[in-house]
Amino acid sequence: MATSIFAKLRAGVTTASAAETQALAAELAAALPPDTTLALHGNLGVGKTTFVQGLARGFGIAGSVTSPTFNIYTVHHARDTGGRTLVHLDAYRLDHPKQVEDLLLEDFLVSPWCLAVEWPEKIPGWLPPGALQLDLGIAADERHTLKLR
């Protein structure tokens, strides 16, 4: 029996390249239930945006996906009409949950959606209780680690 992507991520996964990280994220995208929030924890350079690029590919979203650090968030739509909307939020520059509310993100969360949040520790009270928490890091050998809490 094949191991589910959720079981793999709970056990912890190590990737050796951006392409491997993106493939793992695309696999997760295919298994995520509609209307999911994914909190991506980790320091600068651990691959949070790379992971979101893989999610986008898994959802069938074409085009470039970059860090929304200065925009705060970006909205990406899948090519087909039944596809998901991916909202990519970088909370690094936010100081409190009220700033997130002022962004009116709810207007873009039309089912089916996925909200991927970088730096979720900046807005912990704003995240829904069922958000999936993913820790990203870099191992001593420079490979990337991913683990679902």
Topology, pairings included?
Elements: H1 5-11, E1 13-15, H2 18-31, E2 36-41, H3 48-58, E3 73-77, E4 85-90, H4 97-102, E5 113-118, E6 132-138, E7 144-148
Parallel strand pairs: 2-5, 2-6, 4-5
Antiparallel strand pairs: 1-7, 3-4, 6-7
Helix pairs in contact: 2-3
State the main characteristics:
26% helix; seven-stranded mixed sheet; 149 residues; alpha/beta; 4 helices; Rossmann fold; single chain; 26% strand
Note down, in words, how this protein is organized.
The chain has 149 residues and is of the alpha/beta class. It has helices at residues 5-11, 18-31, 48-58, 97-102; strands at 13-15, 36-41, 73-77, 85-90, 113-118, 132-138, 144-148. The protein has 4 helices and 7 strands, in the order αβαβαββαβββ. It has a 7-stranded mixed beta sheet with strand order 1-7-6-2-5-4-3. The longest helix has 14 residues, at 18-31. The model has no long low-confidence stretch (mean pLDDT 88).
